[in-house]
Amino acid sequence: MPSTAPAPKGFFADKNRAFWTLQIGGWVGYFLLRSLGGLANRMGISFILPTILVTVTGFSITLLMAWAFRAIIRMKPVWVWSLSLMILVIAAVLFSVIEVWAHATFYEPGWRPAGIEFFGAILLTLAVLGAWSALYFGINYFLMLDEQAERFERMAAQANSAQLEMLRYQINPHFLFNTLNSISTLVLLAETEKANTMLSRLSSFLRYSLVGEREGQATVAQEMQALKLYLEIERTRFEDRLRTRFDIAPEVLNARIPSLLLQPLVENAIKYAVTPLEEGADIWVTARRVGDRLELTVADTGPGAGDNRPSAEGTGVGLANIRERLQQAYGDDQRFEILPNSSSPLVQTGAAKGPGVLAVIEIPLQLVSPAEAARSERLTGLAHEVAQ
After folding, report:
1. pTM of the model
2. pLDDT of residue 387
3. Mean of the pLDDT values across residues 47-66?
4. Between the N and C ends of the chain, which has fewer C-beta atoms within 10 Å?
């Protein structure tokens, strides 16, 4: 019973072997049951020979039925039921005729069933072959449903992966537009050294964003290093007006997160906190472990939330991107909030003076092995050390 779909696991991993195992085992069981039943009813040892012939007949007929069922099983239901019933009746009549002949020839010569006896023989074989047919269709429909479920699961995973890639790559054009515009301005002002520096950092950042793991995952260490590259690019524009601080707990450096997850939050902080203020603003990025969760925050000391600044429930492209990526990666097992910075412990320590905004992301803590983290770092070309 070959199929182009992926084979299910377990007993039915090899469908051909499973079929022959059940076929042989089932008819051996039929032979033993009929033989023991005959002996129990004092029919004598001579009853064994016709039972062997009947068993071989049933075994052979059901092989022909299996061949016919394979040809019709994927037809429309009305044809499957009609043809299966016709095949079953023909097989039952043939089986009964051979069974009666074997009984009359090798066990009770001269016996000729008539009327209710022959009808009873047909009903018995019809019940046996009907049970065999029900088992055949039941197993095959189960396998077909299992294969269909696997295909749907694979298609859903591919669609999910494609959507994650789409969400991930939404970031790049937006960021590239701002960066290239800044580089163009520096070139026009003949500040070639700054322009070259920005191009070098942009190249490193793009290597991380484009050559990262295909599923769009990174470690916290890599993500923070990428953020530093991004901030260094922006610092070429804002200079001392852009002040940053990273507070990363060592135990979460190898935690896995969606790559470039925090970049839109930092970009918003620059746009809405640093840009409007002549004195600039502070941006503080933290990552810490809270039980079995990973908490990531981006806080700023800008003007705070207002009509011009999108909220976590708003329609801003960057924040909508974060919401979608978190939903795709973790379902409902995640939290994303935009809060007034006055609610942050950063204000209580005096490190951030507000009013500002605090963005909080909480996701399950998923640690990767040091070897896997090192392999990923070699791929992206980012250093592991992120402490400042």
Report:
1. 0.54
2. 38
3. 87
4. C
Cβ–Cβ < 8 Å for 220, 246: no
Strand partners, 257: 218
User: Model confidence over 161-199: pLDDT tens digits?
Assistant: 555 555 455 555 656 777 788 788 878 888 888 788 888
Residue 133: alpha-carbon gap to chain centroid:
35
**Over 60: is that where the pLDDT of 289 sits?**
yes
For the chain, the distance separating the N- and C-terminal CA atoms, rounded to the nearest angstrom, is 63
Strand partners, 288: 295
The total number of residues shown for the chain amounts to 388
What are the pLDDT digits (tens) for 99-146? Answer: 877 777 766 666 666 566 666 667 888 888 989 999 999 888 888 888
Residue 213: the pLDDT is 47
CA atoms within 13 A on the CB side of 334: 19
Cβ atoms of 360 and 337 within 8 Å: the answer is yes
Cα–chain-centroid distance for residue 114? Answer: 63
312-350 pLDDT tens trace:
554 456 788 788 888 878 888 999 998 887 655 555 555
Matching residue, tokens 């009964």: 96
State the pLDDT confidence band at 384, using cuts at 50, 70 and 90: very low
C-alpha separations of 279 from 164, 178, 199, 301 in Å: 38, 21, 26, 11
Rounded CA separation 280/267 (Å): 14
Under a CB-based contact definition with an 8 Å cutoff, are residues 247 and 297 in contact? no
Tell me whether residue 147 is exposed, middle or buried, using C-beta atoms within 10 angstroms of its C-beta: 0 to 12, 13 to 18, 19 or more. Answer: middle
Helix axes 116-188, 48-72, angle to 10 degrees: 40
Residue pair 301/279 in contact (Cβ under 8 Å)? The answer is no
